[in-house]
């Protein structure tokens, strides 16, 4: 077993233990239902550096079959798909606005959003573009601004193009940005890693899908935790099914 594989399994095991301990704690203390005054909504961190669920928007860009087919970076297509679906479920559970965009569909160049991901957002308005940089597409930027959120969670394929370009532009415009590193992929590991470096140097905050989901509630006694526990258990179960396929 490689060191990288051992490390990934350790992370999953630790995360599962944390999720189960949180669930057991809630059950043993008779957790109130969501919305109960006994368990208030998660407040923002005093320093404001840790992100809260009520101040973010989720932007998903170009999760289309053609892009998935050419991923050659560290996180494989199956895990990227799962992590993206998980992020959508988190967003829906916590009332986080989602902006979904594709490229080249109306032009007849590319197919729409991958079916499994689109199924998580039934009835969603999809903003189709011709520009590789979604921040140069007025309908997309208008949709982002309409959310009223200044902290943006970005996911896109590919990391080096349709993620990096709008991220650096959004940062220049004064938005705060988190990039979900295990929900994105590039056409090579070098391209992916170089793009992550470019974005972090520009001020983007790297994160991962599971870590970000826990950042949004943080306290097992928050009202949001009641919604998140079953999602985390579902997610970890799906990760286990993938095994070494990533």
UniProtKB/TrEMBL annotation:
Key word Signal present: yes
Q: Which domain of life is it from?
A: Bacteria
Keywords in alphabetical order, please: Signal
Indicate yes or no for the key word Disulfide bond.
no
User: What InterPro entries does the entry give?
Assistant: Hydrolase_YcaC-like, Isochorismatase-like_dom, Isochorismatase-like_sf, TAT_signal
Q: Which residues form the Isochorismatase-like domain?
A: 57-206
- Alphabetical list of PANTHER family matching this protein: HYDROLASE (PTHR43559:SF1), HYDROLASE YCAC-RELATED (PTHR43559)
Q: Spell out the protein name for this chain.
A: Isochorismatase family protein
Q: What is the taxonomic lineage of the source species? A: Bacteria, Pseudomonadati, Pseudomonadota, Gammaproteobacteria, Lysobacterales
């Amino acid at each position: 077993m490689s060191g990288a594989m051992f490390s990934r399994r350790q992370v999953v095991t630790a995360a599962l233990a944390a999720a189960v301990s949180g669930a057991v704690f809630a059950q043993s203390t008779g957790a109130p239902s969501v919305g109960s005054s006994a368990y208030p909504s998660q407040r923002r961190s005093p320093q404001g550096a840790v992100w809260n669920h009520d101040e973010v928007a989720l932007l998903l860009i170009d999760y289309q079959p053609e892009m998935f087919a050419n991923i050659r970076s560290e996180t494989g297509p199956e895990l990227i798909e799962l992590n993206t679906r998980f992020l959508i479920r988190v967003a829906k559970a916590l009332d986080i606005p989602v902006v979904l965009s594709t490229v080249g569909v109306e032009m007849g160049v590319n197919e729409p959003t991958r079916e499994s991901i689109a199924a998580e957002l039934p009835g969603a308005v999809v903003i189709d573009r011709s520009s590789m940089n979604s921040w140069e597409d007025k309908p997309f930027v208008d949709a982002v601004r309409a959310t009223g959120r200044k902290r943006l969670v970005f996911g896109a394929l590919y990391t080096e193009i349709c993620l990096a370009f709008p991220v650096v532009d959004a940062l220049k415009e004064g938005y705060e940005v988190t990039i979900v590193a295990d929900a994105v992929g590039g056409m090579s590991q070098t391209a992916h890693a170089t793009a992550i470096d470019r974005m972090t140097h520009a001020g983007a905050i790297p994160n991962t899908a599971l870590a970000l989901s826990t950042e949004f509630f943080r306290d097992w006694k928050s009202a949001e935790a009641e919604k998140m526990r079953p999602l985390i258990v579902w997610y970890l179960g799906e990760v286990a099914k993938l095994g070494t396929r990533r």
